[in-house]
Design brief:
Number of helices: 6
Radius of gyration: 15 Å
Structural class: alpha+beta
Low-confidence stretches: 1-7, 180-189
CATH class: Alpha Beta
CATH architecture: Roll
Largest sheet: 8 strands, mixed
Number of domains: 1
Mean pLDDT: 86
CATH superfamily: ph1033 like domains
Length: 189
C-alpha cells in the first residue's frame, strides 16, 4: 500500500472526500427500485478490504451507477448521503433486487447509509465535460465497493451537485421505498 499512497491511489482518512458506492444495474435491479418510487437507500454491500476498515459514521457518500446505460441508467452520480455505521458482516436472506441468487449470496459485508437519489443524475459525460476525468471510478470502473474521491476531487464535483443532505443524527429509519442491504432483506452474519 506504500506505493499506492505515494501515487495518490490509496485511501487515507485525511484525503478522503467521499466514499463512492457503485451499483451495476446488470447485477442489481435499480430500475425496479425506481419503478416502485424508491428514492432512498439505507445500506449497501461492500467488498472486504483495508478500505472497509476506514469507513466511519458520518462519512459522505456518492452513489454511482455503472454499466452501459441500458434502460436509461447512464453512468454517473445518482445519489448523495452519508454512512451511518461502520461496515458490518452481512448475509443476504433473500434475492431481493439482485438479478441472480448467486450475486445475493456473495454479499459478505454491508454499510448502513442514508443516501437519497437525485432528481437528475450527474452523468459521467457531464463530469468529463467539466474536466473531471480522473476519478478512481472512471479509471477503474470494475473495482469493488467502496471506491472513493479525494477532498480535491469532491471540491471539483460539488458545483455540479445539488446541496448535500445533512448527516443524520441517528441511524436512518427505513422510509417507504427505502432499500436496505442492497436488496431488501438480509441478516447479520
Amino acid at each position: 500500500m506504500a506505493a499506492e499512497a505515494r501515487n495518490g491511489r490509496a485511501v487515507e482518512r485525511d484525503r478522503l472526500g467521499a466514499w463512492v458506492l457503485k451499483c451495476n444495474p446488470s447485477l442489481w435491479d435499480l430500475r425496479a427500485l425506481l419503478d416502485t418510487g424508491g428514492r432512498r437507500l439505507t445500506s449497501w454491500a461492500v467488498h472486504p478490504s483495508y478500505r472497509t476498515r476506514l469507513v466511519a459514521p458520518g462519512d459522505r457518500v456518492l452513489f454511482w451507477v455503472s454499466g452501459d446505460g441500458r434502460d436509461g441508467l447512464h453512468r454517473g452520480v445518482w445519489g448523495l448521503g452519508h454512512t451511518v455505521s461502520e461496515v458490518e458482516p452481512w448475509v443476504e436472506s433473500s434475492q431481493g433486487l439482485w438479478r441472480s441468487a448467486s450475486d445475493a449470496a456473495s454479499v459478505r459485508l454491508r454499510v448502513e447509509i442514508d443516501v437519497r437519489l437525485l432528481d437528475e443524475p450527474v452523468e459521467d459525460a457531464e463530469l468529463r465535460a467539466a474536466g473531471i476525468d480522473a476519478l478512481e471510478v472512471q479509471r477503474q470502473p470494475f473495482m469493488a465497493n467502496p471506491s472513493f474521491v479525494t477532498r480535491d476531487q469532491l471540491e471539483a464535483i460539488e458545483p455540479l451537485l445539488p446541496e448535500w443532505p445533512a448527516a443524520p443524527a441517528e441511524p436512518a429509519e427505513p422510509a417507504p421505498h427505502a432499500v436496505a442491504a442492497n436488496p431488501v432483506a438480509g441478516r447479520r452474519a
